Amino acid sequence: MGCVVKKLKILVGSKNPVKVVAAKTVFELYYPDHEIDCLGLHAPSKVPDQPIGEDETRIGAENRVIFLQANHDADFYCAMEGGAADFSFGPATFAYVVIANRDHTSIGRSSNLPLPPVFYQALLSGEELGNVLDNAFNTTNVKQKGGAIGLLTHHHATRESTYTQALTLAMAPFNFPELYIGV
């Protein structure tokens, strides 16, 4: 008799391979006895390509998940949205993550990466961080690789590792749903 393999279908609101790999990594961690089918799909954020401020960034991730839920069937839906803001200590980039299933939604946030003020000013002028970095560091499509985090930390951290950490933390309500009822 063969062993029945349990499967989970995870949809990510982006085709960016960094985001898809981060989501798959987290679900493999939490569901080691399942086969994880993780697929990245286009899902509109309905915010600018370069969100500015925490609210705009969070709403972009939420919109991606809402779109996936309305148009596709899956066990879990995920989205990651990178943004930037000028905090009291200076400009920084960060990401919001949203994980949802049929019953619950969890929102998490990554740590901040301080941004050089000249980069933040370019974002306020309408440029996207990936393009600013490609120009400054003579890279190509860095946003689908290590991102600003990789470049500015000498690759001691990466965009993927930051998404993985934020998604890992956002899984808490799914681990203990009885503690998060009504939240």
Automatic annotation (TrEMBL):
Its cofactor is Mg(2+); Mn(2+). Mg(2+) binds at D73. Substrate binds at D73, A74. It catalyses: XTP + H2O = XDP + phosphate + H(+); ITP + H2O = IDP + phosphate + H(+). One of its GO terms (biological process) is nucleotide metabolic process. InterPro entries: ITPase-like_fam (IPR029001), Non_canon_purine_NTPase (IPR002786), NTPase/PRRC1 (IPR026533), YjjX_NTPase (IPR050299). GO terms for molecular function: ITPase activity; metal ion binding; nucleotide binding. Pfam families: NTPase_I-T. Residues 13-174 form the Non-canonical purine NTP phosphatase/PRRC1 domain. Keywords: Hydrolase, Magnesium, Manganese, Metal-binding, Nucleotide metabolism, Nucleotide-binding. The keyword Glycoprotein does not apply. Binds 1 divalent metal cation per subunit; can use either Mg(2+) or Mn(2+). Its EC number is 3.6.1.73. Belongs to the YjjX NTPase family. Homodimer. Phosphatase that hydrolyzes non-canonical purine nucleotides such as XTP and ITP to their respective diphosphate derivatives. Probably excludes non-canonical purines from DNA/RNA precursor pool, thus preventing their incorporation into DNA/RNA and avoiding chromosomal lesions. This is Inosine/xanthosine triphosphatase. The lineage of its organism: Bacteria, Pseudomonadati, Pseudomonadota, Gammaproteobacteria, Alteromonadales.
